[in-house]
Amino acid sequence: MLGFTLLLLAGAQSVFAKCKCTPTDPCWPSLSAWSALNTSVDGKLIHTQPIAEPCYPGADYSNQLCQYISDEWNNSSFIELNPAGYCYPRVETCPPVNITAGNHTQCTLGTAPVYTINATEAEDVAAGIKFAQDNNVRLVIKNTGHDIVGRSQGYGALMVWIKYIQSGVTFQETYAPSNGCQSNWTGSAFTVGGGYIWDDLYTTAASHDRIVVGGDDPTVGVIGGYLQGGGHSPSGHYFGLATDQVLELTVVLASGETVTANACQNTDLFTALRGGGGGTYGVVISATIKAHPAHQFIGHRLYVIPQTANLSTLLNISANIVSKYSILSDAGFSGYAEILPSSELSLSIPAGAIYMHSFGVMIPSSNASATIQHAKSVLNSEILADLLPYNGSDFLIESTWYNFPSFESYYDTIAGGSSAEPTGVSDLLLSSRMFDKPSLLNNADNLEGMLHTIFSKYDGGPLNATDIVIYLCLIGGGQVLHPTPYTSVNPAWRKTYLLTEIIVGWPEDASAQTVNHTINDLTFRKSNAMKALTPGMGSYVNEADGYDPSWKEDFFGPNYDWLLSVKRKYDPDDVFYCWRCVGSESWAEVTGGRGYGPLCQTS
Ligand SMILES: Cc1cc2nc3c(=O)[nH]c(=O)nc-3n(C[C@H](O)[C@H](O)[C@H](O)COP(=O)(O)OP(=O)(O)OC[C@H]3O[C@@H](n4cnc5c(N)ncnc54)[C@H](O)[C@@H]3O)c2cc1C
Ligand SMILES: *[C@@H]1O[C@H](CO)[C@@H](O)[C@H](O)[C@H]1NC(C)=O
Ligand SMILES: *[C@@H]1O[C@H](CO)[C@@H](O)[C@H](O)[C@H]1NC(C)=O
Ligand SMILES: *[C@@H]1O[C@H](CO)[C@@H](O)[C@H](O)[C@H]1NC(C)=O
Ligand SMILES: *[C@@H]1O[C@H](CO)[C@@H](O)[C@H](O)[C@H]1NC(C)=O
Ligand SMILES: *[C@@H]1O[C@H](CO)[C@@H](O)[C@H](O)[C@H]1NC(C)=O
Ligand SMILES: *[C@@H]1O[C@H](CO)[C@@H](O)[C@H](O)[C@H]1NC(C)=O
Ligand SMILES: *[C@@H]1O[C@H](CO)[C@@H](O)[C@H](O)[C@H]1NC(C)=O
Ligand SMILES: *[C@@H]1O[C@H](CO)[C@@H](O)[C@H](O)[C@H]1NC(C)=O
Ligand SMILES: *[C@@H]1O[C@H](CO)[C@@H](O)[C@H](O)[C@H]1NC(C)=O
Ligand SMILES: *[C@@H]1O[C@H](CO)[C@@H](O)[C@H](O)[C@H]1NC(C)=O
Ligand SMILES: *[C@@H]1O[C@H](CO)[C@@H](O)[C@H](O)[C@H]1NC(C)=O
Ligand SMILES: *[C@@H]1O[C@H](CO)[C@@H](O)[C@H](O)[C@H]1NC(C)=O
Q1: Average model confidence (pLDDT) for the chain?
Q2: Residue identifier of the C-alpha nearest atom 7 of ligand 7
Q3: I need a surface site. Which of 127, 204, 398, 430 has the fewest CB within 10 A?
Q4: Right CATH number for 169-293 from 1.10.275.10, 3.30.465.10, 1.20.910.10, 3.60.20.30?
Q5: Looking at the domain that runs over 31-163+573-601, which CATH code has it been given?
Q6: pTM of the model
């Protein structure tokens, strides 16, 4: 209740002509209108409460619950079971602080929607869409709330939450398309009926001896933003992007109608939803995706740990390794690498950072030993031969090979994001860039220069690895390079070997000016250092910097205008909106000083 009261006080009527109604506006639906909506969805309407409300004075105060919430705050499985739960709230408005210990922060919903339909079937979704349309209320679609750009958040909104649409995961030994549609796919398939996460699907796929193309982190949702925005994966190199695997979708449209989208029906919608991003064309409630035969993998893990060496020397060595990535990829390697603060490993070393990678190679059933031998000799000659002279002196080099009988053992041992990502944090920003072969091969000096820019401070101070992580996702190459029909991912994906992600953070108590400088430094200086090496490439829409002024071009490439035409066709009245999604330029949040506010038309 507290959150709601504060929202009522906070509102300021917008200067724009046409805005969606918020709780402080006279046009906000009455309690009886909400109650009627609740009846029409069989009581599944939730008046959303901030998760940590029990930490604050009021009827819900509970020291014991607050303790539990504080302990679970970094647990993304806990966060995603809560309607107000977000991995990366755009503004943190209800942290689990200890009020009795003297903190007197206020607790409000912030960017979380006011009401949530805990949908379990298509009719609930349609009822939410209709209500939002009829009452001019902002609508938000949420699955897990993992989105890094904040696209499943929305101040003053009604949320359609698809988490509990769970009509099962079904396996087809041989895929048979609906309605007699022709398909080129003669292999197996899974139909995923709702808000399942990759952890669910990995388990099911393993039990059928199949590999599916899914998230590096098991807590990401299957059918939502991940799949619709592209989806990179530890197995994508061998089978293509996750969105390339989609055979068929069931979609609730803005009109309320539920349709099938595949290569025969609603093909424009099918294409837009295969790579054009979630949240804006319709609500996907089921997806059928390819399932591939099981394979063995080998793995390689490398740690480069500076002992006496400084950060500059680590970046020199890292740039040299990265310049060989397309060679590794062409030899079958794929996986994830990082340059991360040594403090995360509780190491205290002068350089302040280490390089590490966990790569794998899928082994074909015929020619296994030749493939293994080839892969090992490429990695030994291209990477290890250059490193071993340093070992034991300036650096500690740890190189380990693994044999895995299956994808699952590869994933569980070294490929999955088993180290839980921090969640519930709003004091970080991410920017990504795709790298093609010419930007890597024989380009070590320029890559080193880029890393120097990234690890230098905007105020001209010395190189410093504090509060910066670089993820080097070697998830392209191989099948990712091959365009498939009916996809709308940024075509730059078809040249991508490496996706580089920079994550910068700032202290919780940083001043507004420091935060602003840090954000601008990432959006412009650091991101431009990546762009300078990768002309014509793009950023990954699902792992991107929303402040990027070239977001249309960087996220969608030349497909933007076509995607917008599909958006206009299927959602002519803009009932769906998310920040930086296709069509979002027609709307803007009037944020005032809070960082969020009413959603209004821009023209
Ligand atoms: C810990 C972590 C690990 C990650 N690992 C990877 C990775 O390995 N590979 C990768 O490619 N990405 C990864 N990502 C990024 C991920 O792809 C995005 O966060 C993605 O948006 C998550 O989709 P979601 O549906 O789970 O999240 P949500 O936040 O619920 O939704 C994301 C977007 O999709 C829309 N949406 C959700 N469900 C639907 C639906 N059913 N129909 C229509 N629109 C919908 C929402 O409106 C929103 O715009 C990771 C993110 C996190 C936080
Ligand atoms: C919707 O109805 C259910 C069941 O009657 C009730 O428990 C719930 O509190 C109602 N939701 C709202 C927002 O009033
Ligand atoms: C809050 O602080 C008080 C007093 O220091 C303590 O007794 C209580 O256990 C704390 N509660 C939580 C949830 O940490
Ligand atoms: C949660 O993560 C943050 C940031 O990584 C960390 O500072 C904090 O200690 C973590 N909290 C818990 C309870 O693990
Ligand atoms: C995270 O939360 C989920 C869901 O509440 C719970 O099942 C799991 O045990 C938690 N994990 C940890 C490490 O606390
Ligand atoms: C809350 O109060 C405790 C004890 O006074 C303090 O350690 C902590 O940093 C405070 N947290 C915030 C967010 O102000
Ligand atoms: C949502 O609905 C599901 C299924 O009916 C239920 O298990 C779950 O507890 C509900 N969640 C909330 C937050 O009400
Ligand atoms: C099937 O293959 C043909 C020929 O390559 C191609 O034209 C067609 O688009 C493919 N269909 C699908 C659904 O991918
Ligand atoms: C880092 O070490 C290298 C090699 O020892 C040296 O040439 C360089 O000057 C050092 N850089 C800094 C900033 O100390
Ligand atoms: C076997 O693998 C090697 C090394 O990858 C490759 O050069 C060769 O062409 C492969 N042979 C066959 C028949 O696939
Ligand atoms: C790294 O240092 C070596 C010698 O110190 C130098 O020749 C080379 O150009 C530097 N950069 C890279 C990327 O190797
Ligand atoms: C890096 O920056 C942090 C915090 O800004 C500071 O504490 C640390 O001393 C710096 N390290 C170096 C090597 O300059
Ligand atoms: C942040 O920086 C931008 C660009 O320099 C500026 O336009 C904006 O007003 C600043 N915002 C705040 C809150 O300081």
Answers
A1: 93
A2: 164
A3: 398
A4: 3.30.465.10
A5: 3.30.43.10
A6: 0.94
